[in-house]
Structure formats: structure tokens, C-alpha cells
Amino acid sequence: MAAVFLDPGHGGTEPGAVTADGKREADGNLRLALILAPMLLAAGHSVRLSREEDVMLSLSERVKRAWEWGTDLLISLHIDGAGSPAPSGHHVIHSITDKRGERGDRLAWLLVRGIADATGRPPFARSGGPVWTRRSLVLPWLDYHSVIRHAIQRGIEAPVIVERGFVSNPDDARLLFDDEYLIMQAGGIVMAVDQYEIP
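The structure assignment produced for this chain is given below.
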């Protein structure tokens, strides 16, 4: 069983991506986390959230809370956006320090497949695949995404960012704020955590 730290991205004065009809990514991320947490507990995992209400936290504070708690896995929940309505589907980002088949890469693929199986919706059809990494443009030996970079620096196992869909895609935008769909997404995440083996 795993100690899972859920980080619903954004919050407070930081809304994240916003749908055409004004729904905020921060609220969708938090709603999913509040649905997901009891499901993980019921599966036998221990769970902590970075936030349980609409507040803004720095990325370093989120990771500090995860590290102090002693998390095995840090899963940061987000929603993506694009310049056109075409991109759709979920994808997962892990650290550049994890090669294919290692820690974060393994968890990322379990999450991609789990969410696809649970929702019946395919992942984002990006050219490099739905699991990927990104290097800092300034310091290419570090991760681009701060939450992953801070987590790796603190020795947290397998930090990942789950981009659950695109606010810019009308179908995704509708589903990402629908409780029935969020329950399915949560089920896919639980499935992935159940299958992930802590080293």
C-alpha cells in the first residue's frame, strides 16, 4: 500500500486554465482530489492533500508538505489548454531523471492506461506519446516543471503531473467538471496506484 500525496493544482487567486464558460481548472482539480482521496483510502492507501479548499499555495510549499508527511507518490492534478480546440485527452509528465520503465515513467504509463480504461476515452495523441518529460530551457539537467523539480530535489519517489484533458476542447471541458466522469477518472487513478510497486 502506498502513501499518496494528491496535489490539486492552482487555487485561490491562481485559477489555472479556464473554460469558455468560465469554469476554473483549480476548482476541477480540487473536486477530483476530494472524490479520489476516499477512494484511495478505501483501497487501503494512506492519503494527504496539499489543499482541501480554494487557497493558493506555492509549488515549493506543496512539495514541502508532501516531503514532511513522508509520501511515496506525489500526484499533481491539472488540466491542460491549447491554442486550438483539436487537442484532447489526458497525458502524464514525469521527471527527466526516470528512464523508460523506471519509477515515474512506470507510474505515468499506469495512470495513462488506468484513466483510459476507466473512462473509455483515449489519451492525448501527441507525437511523442501520452507519457513525456520536459527539461528546463535554462538549466537542461533539471526538470522544467517546478513541482517535479522540487520533489526530485527532496527525494520524493515518482512525482508526476496528470494533465486530465484540455479546457480548450469542448468535449473535454464538459467532462472535466462532471462528477460522474470525475468518479471514472478517479477510479483509473486508483487502479494505477494499486498496480504500482513501491521499491
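Interim note for the steering committee: The beta strands are 3-8, 46-49, 73-80, 91-94, 131-132, 160-166. Residues 3-195 form a domain with the Aminopeptidase fold (CATH 3.40.630.40).
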